[in-house]
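Risk mitigation, structural track. In case the binding assays with alpha-D-glucopyranose fail to produce interpretable data, a predicted complex structure has been prepared as a fallback.
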Amino acid sequence: MASEPPPSLRTGSWFRSVVFYEIPVRSFFDSNGDGIGDLPGVTAKLDYLGRLGVGAIWLLPFYVSPWRDEGYDISDHYAIHPKLGTVDDFDRLVEEAHRRGIRVLGDYVANHVSTDHPWFQEARRDRSSPYRAWFLWSDTGTEFSRVRVIFRDEETSNWSWDEVAGQYYFHRFFASQADLNYDAPAVRAEMIRYARFWLGRGLDGFRCDAVPYLFKREGTRSQSLPEVHQFFREVRAMMDREFPGTVLVAEANQSVPETIPYFGEGREFQMVMHFPLMPNLFLALGEEDPRRIVHVLRATLPAPGGTSWAYFLRNHDEVTGEHLSEDEREMMLWLYGRDPRAVLNHGLRRRLAPMLDGDDDRVEMMTALLLGLPGAPYLYYGDEIGMGDRLDLPDRDGVRTPMQWSEGPTAGFSTASPDRLVRPIVSDPRFAPSVRSVAGEEGRDGSLLERVRALLSVRNERAETFSSPLYDALELPGSPVFGFVRPGPAEHILCLYNLSRSEVEVQARLPAWSAPHPTELLGHERRLTVTEGALRGRLPPYGFAWVGFPRVPDPPPP
Ligand code: GLC
Ligand code: CA
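Fallback model:
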């Protein structure tokens, strides 16, 4: 049975105060020994996620699919892939998550379907079928020539010839993913039905895939057209009416001016993934200079009333360089892409820990940065234990290897034999399960997992402050330290991050509000001292600090 979430889980702006965690179901935990992670596997690990401090999980597509693109190629929107479990397994996962106070987001893949989908199969066979109008066909494959090819390492055109149809069909991504025709009213109605179906089964919202591309118009780049915004306003209106408190998250990998409108003045997405910021975080770290972070945040904060940016360091795709300048892209490749196998499309297919040379201090600092920013932080599975990647696997598979639960040939992911796993386990000795695993790190003082858990615990305790949209950048001219204040109702939190490999002296005049008795919230108190109106101290290489100042009560009115 579909379950109603406990009402407390969906009140107000819950999405601004919790930490999200992204899970490719196939790679997380295999409950039945067939070598493939599944929904009961996620349920089995909810206690782990609860202990970590996660407040919401985002499940990658779990629908029926030939899996040519990690399930982003759906062939039945209304059924669970049999290898991942049953509808009962899904209901149980949602119910058990809710019981632990963890919300569940699904992935809403609206732009395209698998070419195996019965809709496409019927459309290509029968020109008189009503499904013919659900796709985009052409005799020449020359239309929409201004639309860029996204997977440029694998596809040369957005049109592919279909023998059966005797025409070209349009696809924004792989040729195995035919784009739907959103000018057909039946397509729009069907996609709203698909959203309603899973929300009705208890999902707390959707991360929406490839949002900008739904509508195509000749002579344009066919990105972020007004019709796209209109469609998602309709989806959102349905959700507000029928499933209050559920949320939409936009994957809109665009420039700053094209990304901001997805908040739609509070009537579209509650959260928008902050793609313009993500590569800049890595660049700033490599350059030991926070200015580019400050600039991007200045251009994008605050998110419009009631909404929130969604921040992430890494996800299941590449680190995108699409919206960087040529120079910036070169810099990113020079800093993080020395191994040519890491370069894919416009970016880098790497996990967090290997990008940062397996240095726990840097991983912890970048995670603390993510958690300190005004908005919703999204962690990528395995990054909390410093998991590595596999550059020998094709496409983005190398960042989607089985979660490392413990030592051993299958890393505790499955009881199947190692050669039957969905993907091979990380083999690089710096990141292999013998040195990087949940069992090896949980409860061990000073391990990355414990350090990340401590961060989440402070962030969750101080959710009231961290969920406020307020943020004031601190002026630290010429310093490699990125600093800002998060003003909250009961306290202000000062966040400082040393992006450099050297110990640095920090000196800052503190704003008028600063109370005389600050506390370092993470036990780093010896690093900083605060004297009347000024802060002084030293941050170690890649060190950081979160300093809490209780608010001075406002003076009584005269
Ligand atoms: C999104 C997904 C990516 C997928 C693509 C096509 O960008 O994040 O993994 O390949 O859409 O569905
Ligand atoms: Ca399985």
